[in-house]
């Protein structure tokens, strides 16, 4: 029964995060990108902080000490602000499915960054090949034209790639910082800090503030979905599954989410996934399999042993 529950929650998380890309595309029709991302985390941050204050004991909802605030700062700047600013700006000129697939490169880049910051744990030749294969997938999807590298479509996909790289780097740095901060507290304060950073960036970019446009039903629906479902509910599911499944299996959500993005993007936005994008996705997924081959083999052995015990 527990296994069915985990599968159900995993698919729910993939659906929440996959359809978030469609909600982003819908909301960008009405709200400037960086401001839209900031508003999303104004709401999500308050919800998460409320949850942290309720769920944690002894004032653990409040970061303490230099290390605690340092991990929050890294999370705010890289995991929230940089990731979402790049993603929302980039997604103005690319499809939701292409953005979701490019973001699925994050686990591969995370491994690459981890090896950079831990030189003694260098990637093997096969692991390097996996990273290269993942980057090849990005190149296939973005299809750069050397004669026009400033084409809106290429620049958009490059920005989404920067979003994936920001998230990967932030993931590595937050794990490297020696902090006993509960993950709920780190996420809540990172969301609020990231929202503040994005509001400052939005003002610096001169994005128009037109609240009347935000009142459109589709804009409100997209914002509410992103803040409450994709962010608040999504991260709560992520925390729960991380403890139950571990980091390797939960990373696989990055490769299931684009399926939901493609289906809902086709139904709601009329976006069609072409063969080139599918090929790029296959290359990125293959790169992940090479980089994580040992961990995936261990997970497969564990599943096989569990299945054998159930049959006995």
From TrEMBL:
Residues 9-142, 158-291 form the EamA domain. PROSITE patterns: PROKAR_LIPOPROTEIN. The chain crosses the membrane at residues 35-56, 68-90, 96-118, 125-142, 154-174, 186-205, 217-238, 250-269, 275-291. Keywords: Membrane, Transmembrane, Transmembrane helix. It is a multi-pass membrane protein. It is found in: Membrane. It comes from the Archaea. The keyword Membrane applies. Pfam families: EamA. Its main location: membrane. SUPFAM superfamilies: Multidrug resistance efflux transporter EmrE. Coiled coil: none annotated. The keyword Membrane applies. This is DMT(Drug/metabolite transporter) superfamily permease.
């Amino acid at each position: 029964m527990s296994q069915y529950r985990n599968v159900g929650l995993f698919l729910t998380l993939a659906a929440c995060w996959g359809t978030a890309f469609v909600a982003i595309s819908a909301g960008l029709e009405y709200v400037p990108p960086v401001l839209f991302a900031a508003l999303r985390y104004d709401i999500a941050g308050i919800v998460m902080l409320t949850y942290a204050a309720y769920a944690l004991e002894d004032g653990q909802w409040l970061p303490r000490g230099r290390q605690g605030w340092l991990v929050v700062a890294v999370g705010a700047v890289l995991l929230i602000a940089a990731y979402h600013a790049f993603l929302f700006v980039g997604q103005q000129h690319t499809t939701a499915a292409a953005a979701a697939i490019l973001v699925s490169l994050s686990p591969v880049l995370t491994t690459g960054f981890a090896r950079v910051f831990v030189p003694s744990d260098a990637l093997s030749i096969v692991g390097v090949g996996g990273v290269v294969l993942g980057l090849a997938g990005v190149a296939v999807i973005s299809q750069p034209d050397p004669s026009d590298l400033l084409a809106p479509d290429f620049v958009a996909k490059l920005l989404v790639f920067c979003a994936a790289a920001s998230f990967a780097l932030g993931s590595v740095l937050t794990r490297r910082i020696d902090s006993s901060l509960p993950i709920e507290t780190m996420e809540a304060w990172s969301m609020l800090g990231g929202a503040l950073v994005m509001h400052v960036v939005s003002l610096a970019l001169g994005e128009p503030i037109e609240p009347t446009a935000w009142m459109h039903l589709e804009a409100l629906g997209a914002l509410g979905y992103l803040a409450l479902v994709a962010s608040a509910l999504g991260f709560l599911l992520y925390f729960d599954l991380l403890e139950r499944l571990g980091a390797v299996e939960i990373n696989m959500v990055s490769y299931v989410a684009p399926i939901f993005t493609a289906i809902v993007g086709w139904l709601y936005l009329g976006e069609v996934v072409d063969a080139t994008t599918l090929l790029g996705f296959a290359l990125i997924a293959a790169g992940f399999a090479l980089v994580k081959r040992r961990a995936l083999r261990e997970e497969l052995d564990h599943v096989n042993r569990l299945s054998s015990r159930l049959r006995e």
